[in-house]
Amino acid sequence: MQHFTAIENHSKKEIEELIESARGFKKNRFGTALKGKTLIALFFNPSTRTRVSFDLAMHELGGHAIALAPGSSSWGIEVNEGAVMDGEAEEHLKDVTKVLCRYGDALAIRCFPKFKDWKEEKKDAILSNMVKWSDKPVINMETISHPCQALAMMMTLKEKLKGFKGKKMALTWVYHPKPLNTAVANSAGMIASICGMDLAISNPKGYDLDGDYLAMMKGFCEKNGAKFSVSNSMEDALKDADFVYAKSWGPLSQYGNFKPHGNDKFKHWIVDKEKMNKTNNGYFSHCLPMRRNVKATDEVVDSGRSLIYEEAENRLHVQKAVLAKLIGGKK
Amino acid sequence: MQHFTAIENHSKKEIEELIESARGFKKNRFGTALKGKTLIALFFNPSTRTRVSFDLAMHELGGHAIALAPGSSSWGIEVNEGAVMDGEAEEHLKDVTKVLCRYGDALAIRCFPKFKDWKEEKKDAILSNMVKWSDKPVINMETISHPCQALAMMMTLKEKLKGFKGKKMALTWVYHPKPLNTAVANSAGMIASICGMDLAISNPKGYDLDGDYLAMMKGFCEKNGAKFSVSNSMEDALKDADFVYAKSWGPLSQYGNFKPHGNDKFKHWIVDKEKMNKTNNGYFSHCLPMRRNVKATDEVVDSGRSLIYEEAENRLHVQKAVLAKLIGGKK
Amino acid sequence: MQHFTAIENHSKKEIEELIESARGFKKNRFGTALKGKTLIALFFNPSTRTRVSFDLAMHELGGHAIALAPGSSSWGIEVNEGAVMDGEAEEHLKDVTKVLCRYGDALAIRCFPKFKDWKEEKKDAILSNMVKWSDKPVINMETISHPCQALAMMMTLKEKLKGFKGKKMALTWVYHPKPLNTAVANSAGMIASICGMDLAISNPKGYDLDGDYLAMMKGFCEKNGAKFSVSNSMEDALKDADFVYAKSWGPLSQYGNFKPHGNDKFKHWIVDKEKMNKTNNGYFSHCLPMRRNVKATDEVVDSGRSLIYEEAENRLHVQKAVLAKLIGGKK
């Protein structure tokens, strides 16, 4: 394991080992596996949980984290090799990467898509170029996928469900007034299908996740002998589900052309008690932040079946597992 | 002691113990009382001294501090329970609080009032709700009161005066072109009256501090057999004072309706040498930042009776005392 | 050595000792020389490398760094003693400095000129006043000079060249669409001349560095029996050079009056392979950030003679040397 940039780059076995390692860190929070190691974390977008949990993950294992926010205070960054930099960009990603590799032991990056052109953004240029130019491990803290969140979700399920085989996960779109990133949905569907769950995705017509991602999820399900479906009915997806994962995202086809209130006709796409009653006494979760009573009702979010805080806490533990694997002591 | 959110929640005895503890930390700056502990500090407003002194307080006792600035880079935060979050807020304070409690051992928050409606802001909704939802200690780094600053002021007086009984503190309004928070004045008056000093407050007509706060101060003074007065004459307040504490604040009745240059007629409310000459060779202090030659003259600020740097330094020591008491080792 | 604010305040011997110390830290990155020490670093301007390398320098030697960005979130700072602070500034530099000295063991500051009036900015008021009011060492992280960058450059040359005597450094202006600070050029020319290299500066007519700085460089060269020249031909400067240091800067005479595209006629001032061919198989470097294919071509920057990453890495090591000298353990 050289980098941690997308969940689909890792086998079921590797994922299970990371989760086992994370469970160990949950039992023993402090250690020395990262003594003398430094993580340099680049935030092109805001962050609360990710910033705190990575900082703590390093610190509690004897290491050190430095968070930078190039987006907020600074010059643009050029990504394309060979570019004549006579525009706004003051610095080339190649140089940023190569210098930070001299200072730190691992790099982490958060860089959301700009919702301009999905074809372009799907290339994940900053992350993939950083990997190309880095001789240190690179960790994805959310670009067009969010493998750390997915790993935390899966660890939480491991703690709650008895095995993944034959268990149904409903990954459902929910309403949000703004178009959001598909990253969490991509990685959540991917890890569930890799790990052998049945996967039922639901979203309004026109809101399908990227076809290549869906095809990969379908392929993993087939390989595992698990069910896979995409529908336009939240009720269908939630029926008999053991786990409901809610997330909103903007329609890929409308990138660059989002309309104000364009989502408003889908306000009924909210996870409420009535819909949860159709599940197999299912658990509920959502990555944070989450708009209450818009994406899911307080009744669902605050119920005994809600895993939102457990999943958020597990970010800390899985990130320790990833860091220990990538740059930990005994390598 | 479960939280540290307002000075009036603490007895004279508790305050004196904190000051004694702080004096110990002043003598021995380094220790291990906070080993393995993490403070998560949320800054909705700018900070220099508070940020540095809390970071150092944790670090020098073996702990770790993480500072977040949700205000500068980020989404709004919803405070009201049950809200339908279809506006600007992306995240509910309940969720922020409950997640940060999974990561850290104590939370600290700075969140100034917005000068819109004192009745509303007096509820201190963010702080009080955070306390409600937190299962870890919460520390007030300045909302509508500023107990850490008050504690530092009182520690400084403890070092300079022989006892508090019969000693007169003048808490006086001074000119500032902008309306400021009443937090420091509230907490300064409160701690002085709890600790048994005579308290003489002066401010222009219409600039009285909140009546409930004044009533509490008066009550503490009466209980301690100490004098209490509010007047519109700085000269009266300063007469024979052993200590002059200067602070500016905006008139509560004009919240939401501040006029540019509305304070300008009170430019003579400045602490100068002439006024200090009326005191009992009194000490002077002011929390920082402070506009020189507007709130007090350089002559006063740089004199041998000025305690501004000592008070600022003591922030570090009292915060160690608070942290050690709340989350320190032997609990 | 009390402060580290300008390279011309240090003798050749002192510089060589710092470089030797830095080479030691390069071999043994971790140590305890700064145990229990805290650096407070004030960034009035953005920073990536400087922020990371100072943080790491402290951390890897057992110390602690706190970075503040007063510029981004905050109140103005008054610099002039005696000022009546009834304008925008909420805080006086004297008070900031004196308080931070109570908290930390050393202060560091980055504060670029504002390109309004070189005569005024040449006084470097913030830095020089901070030194005046500080009883702790002050480090310049780039104001109107950049001694840390210069030291890193010189350490890199020490690693590559066999001695400095008789070696020619070309310090050449290169095109950039915006007017930039002369700080790096000032300090680079100064350190090379102090250390005994021949120095050939080239820039377009009207772009001469400040006369006092040039006179100092000339003086050092003469004292060392080395050559010194300023010309308007990059080709002349690069001829037979052992080292080419590229940098762009805005013309001092046009401070306060910069014209958009005012530099555009000098787009041919770029370091390319053809020009490098005229050197004595010279090395190339540039501080980062650097606009590729505008200041220098990829061919030059990515060649085996390019030292840009080595110089950036050496920032870490020289800063450890400076910090250890100023506040290190055995003092």
Give a written overview of the molecule.
The first copy, chain A, contains 13 helices and eleven strands. Chain A has 331 residues and is an alpha/beta fold. The first copy, chain A, is 39% helix and 15% strand. Chain A folds into two domains: 7-145 and 315-327, Aspartate/ornithine carbamoyltransferase (Rossmann fold, 3-Layer(aba) Sandwich); 149-311, 3-Layer(aba) Sandwich (Rossmann fold), CATH 3.40.50.1370. In chain A, helix 1 crosses helix 13 (308-327), helix 2 (49-60) packs across helix 13 and helix 7 (147-160) packs across helix 13 (308-327). The N and C termini of chain A lie close together (11 Å). In chain A, the strands form three sheets. Chain A has a five-stranded parallel β-sheet. In chain A, strands 2-1-5-6 form a four-stranded parallel β-sheet, with helices on both faces. The first copy, chain A, has helices spanning 12-27, 49-60, 70-73, 93-103, 118-121, 125-133, 147-160, 183-194, 211-223, 234-238, 273-276, 298-301, 308-327, and strands at residues 38-43, 64-68, 76-78, 89-92, 106-110, 138-140, 168-173, 198-202, 228-231, 243-247, 283-285. The model of chain A has no long low-confidence stretch (mean pLDDT 95).
Put the structure in a nutshell:
Chain A contains 13 helices and eleven strands.
